[in-house]
Amino acid sequence: MEAFGQFIPLILIFGIMYFLLIRPQQKKVKEHAAMVSALRRGDQVVTQGGLIGKVTKVKDDNEIEVELAEGVKVRVVQNTIAHVLSKTEPAK
């Protein structure tokens, strides 16, 4: 019984860490994945490198094409998109 009593604080610390650190991080990862999967042509985005551009093409292989300036297009991995500044309306 005494051995179990010594593990109670350790179990409590793990429980607190789960609710304060692990669970919010998992929620943030799910939100980011949903944001990235919802990207479409015309969205204005910010990359993790700080570049702001407009999505011109969404490719199937985890890659998008972003126009940084007129005539300047770069290929970007979808997961490197940090924020979506403005969404476009879906095409009808």
- Give the termini distance in whole angstroms: 67 Å
Rg computed from alpha carbons, rounded to a whole number of angstroms: 21 Å
Strand order of the largest sheet: 4-3-2-1-5
H-E string: HEEEEE
Structural class: alpha+beta
- Our estimate of the beta-strand percent is 25-35%
| Total number of strands | 5
Biggest sheet architecture? 5 strands, antiparallel
Helical element count? 1
Amount of helix = 25-40%
Given as residue ranges, the uncertain stretches (5+ residues, pLDDT < 50) are: none
* Global morphology: rod-shaped
Whole-number mean pLDDT: 90
Describe this structure in words.
The protein has 92 residues and is α+β, with helices and mostly antiparallel strands. 39% of the residues lie in helices and 34% in strands. The chain has 1 helix and 5 strands; from the N terminus they run αβββββ. It has a 5-stranded antiparallel beta sheet with strand order 4-3-2-1-5. The longest helix has 36 residues. It is rod-shaped and about 70 Å long. The model has no long low-confidence stretch (mean pLDDT 90). This is Sec translocon accessory complex subunit YajC. It is found in: Cell membrane. Pfam families: YajC (PF02699). It is a single-pass membrane protein.
Write the layout of secondary structure elements.
Blueprint lengths: L1 H36 L6 E4 L4 E8 L3 E7 L2 E6 L3 E6 L6
Organism: Tateyamaria armeniaca
Subunit structure: Part of the SecDF-YidC-YajC translocase complex. The SecDF-YidC-YajC translocase forms a supercomplex with SecYEG, called the holo-translocon (HTL).
Keywords: Cell membrane, Membrane, Protein transport, Translocation, Transmembrane, Transmembrane helix, Transport
